[in-house]
């Protein structure tokens, strides 16, 4: 959530900044609501002051032996007026809060301006795009060849956009997740956490999934409902909710492997073939909780940690910075990593690493005490995929395929595969 002072102090500039992010703020409606809030706040404070003065007068009159009934009546009337004014003030504040929850984070000053993915900026490439003396198969064709990837069986169980993995493909999928967690915990200093796959609405709201993306979430029929996690970012980041950290407790770095559940609302017809866009997929998520002055450095560390997985797997990729119009709701700045997929002949997203600055922290009420001033300040939160397991599986299958359809196992994964070096047909 944005700092309300940003809107109050410079509405015109904030409207312009939000427009760059693709959000149109109704400034006139905001000003009307804000004017009403100010009027009611002044009224409430005046009534409180008047009631306190009248209550004090009662004690003085009583000490003098004067009739206090008129004063008691006046205080009672002021109490009713105050009660009514406070209720209206809370209603206006609730309207403002609901509005603020729908407003995205502002783009950082160094984010390139743009409207969609065509305006994203490539920062670097790593690795060599492989060449083949044959027409490379995509992961769906490889799955059919090996009889280890079955969309039809998954559809019988759950419907479209699910995939059943078998035998060596299932083991390779598991191996990738374990490999990622080992690298991040043993080499990059993350603390592994195992978190619930169902979360309360407050947790979803804390990281920005609610109310904006309610249509994309799977919810239970509980009252209130609970939500299947769309990403481990939600439960892991909310570990910092309602906390005041000591400065020496930060930074915190967490890694978690979870399934992710998404309705993919509005994506009909997109990547329906294979495992690119699923209702359920696995991801190793990385989360940083840091002080404000550390967040830019933490963002660079985060993207470097995610890239390291691809480097160890020797998979060619490129890193881009998203333009203002292509970023997510909570992000102030986002780096995407796109891995080369020979079966598609293009780079596809495999990780998104975002600095959310204090946007989520304000929603979660997550703070750190400044040791110099003794005051509390909002923390900064960052999150990123390190990596999406299913898409990494796709990349390994397609990049390590041989002409006969067999698939070599990357050397770093062989210990996780019981020493297996190749998946044969």
Structural summary, described in words:
The longest helix is centred in the N-terminal third of the chain and has 37 residues. The chain has 425 residues and is of the alpha+beta class. The protein has two domains: 76 residues, Helix Hairpins; 307 residues, BirA Bifunctional Protein, domain 2, CATH 3.30.930.10. The strands form five sheets. An eight-stranded mixed sheet has the order 1-10-11-12-15-9-8-4. The protein is elongated, with a radius of gyration of 27 Å. The chain contains twelve helices and 17 strands. α3 packs antiparallel against α4. A hairpin with a 4-residue loop joins β11 and β12.
Question: Which keywords apply here?
Answer:
single chain; 425 residues; alpha+beta; Helix Hairpins; BirA Bifunctional Protein, domain 2; 2 domains; eight-stranded mixed β-sheet; three-stranded mixed β-sheet; 12 helices; 20% strand
What's the arrangement of secondary structure elements?
Layout lengths: L3 H6 L1 H10 L6 H37 L5 H33 L19 E6 L12 H8 L2 E2 H8 L5 E2 L1 H20 L4 E2 L5 E3 H7 L18 E3 L4 H5 L6 E3 L5 E10 L18 E11 L4 H18 L4 E5 L11 E9 L4 E10 L3 H6 L2 E3 L6 E3 L1 E9 H11 L7 E2 L13 E2 L2
């Amino acid at each position: 959530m944005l700092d309300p002072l940003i809107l109050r102090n410079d509405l015109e500039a904030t409207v312009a900044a939000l427009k760059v992010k693709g959000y149109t703020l109704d400034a006139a409606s905001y000003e009307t609501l804000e004017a009403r809030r100010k009027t009611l706040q002044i009224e409430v404070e005046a009534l409180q002051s008047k009631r306190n003065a009248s209550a004090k007068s009662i004690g003085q009159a009583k000490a003098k032996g004067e009739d206090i009934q008129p004063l008691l009546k006046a205080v009672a009337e002021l109490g009713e007026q105050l009660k009514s004014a406070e209720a209206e003030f809370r209603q206006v504040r609730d309207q403002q809060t609901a509005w603020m929850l729908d407003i995205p984070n502002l783009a950082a000053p160094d984010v390139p301006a743009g409207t969609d993915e065509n305006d994203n900026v490539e920062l670097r490439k790593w690795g060599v795009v492989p060449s083949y003396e044959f027409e490379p198969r995509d992961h769906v064709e490889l799955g059919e060849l090996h009889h280890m990837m079955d969309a039809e069986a998954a559809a019988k169980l759950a419907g479209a956009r699910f995939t059943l993995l078998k035998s060596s493909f299932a083991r390779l999928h598991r191996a990738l997740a374990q490999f990622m967690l080992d690298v991040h915990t043993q080499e990059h200093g993350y603390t592994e956490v195992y978190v619930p796959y169902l979360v309360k609405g407050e947790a979803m709201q804390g990281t920005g999934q609610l109310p904006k993306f309610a249509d994309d979430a799977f919810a239970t029929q509980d009252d209130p409902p609970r939500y299947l996690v769309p990403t481990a970012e939600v439960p892991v980041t909310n570990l910092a909710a309602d906390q005041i950290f000591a400065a020496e407790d930060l930074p915190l770095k967490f890694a978690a492997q979870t399934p992710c559940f998404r309705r993919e609302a509005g994506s009909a017809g997109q990547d329906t073939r294979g495992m690119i866009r699923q209702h359920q997929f696995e991801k190793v998520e990385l989360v940083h909780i840091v002080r404000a002055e550390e967040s830019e450095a933490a963002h660079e560390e985060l993207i470097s940690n995610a890239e390291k997985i691809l480097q160890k797997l020797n998979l060619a990729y490129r890193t881009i910075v998203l333009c203002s119009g292509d970023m997510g709701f909570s992000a102030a700045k986002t780096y995407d990593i796109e891995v080369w997929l020979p079966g598609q002949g293009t780079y596809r997203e495999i990780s998104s690493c975002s600095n959310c600055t204090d946007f989520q922290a304000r929603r979660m009420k997550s703070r750190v005490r400044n040791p110099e001033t003794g005051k509390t300040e909002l923390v900064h939160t960052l999150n990123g995929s390190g990596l999406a397991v299913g898409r990494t599986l796709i990349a390994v299958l397609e990049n390590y395929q041989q002409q006969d359809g067999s698939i070599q196992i990357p050397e770093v994964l062989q210990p996780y595969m019981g020493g297996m070096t190749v998946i044969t047909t």
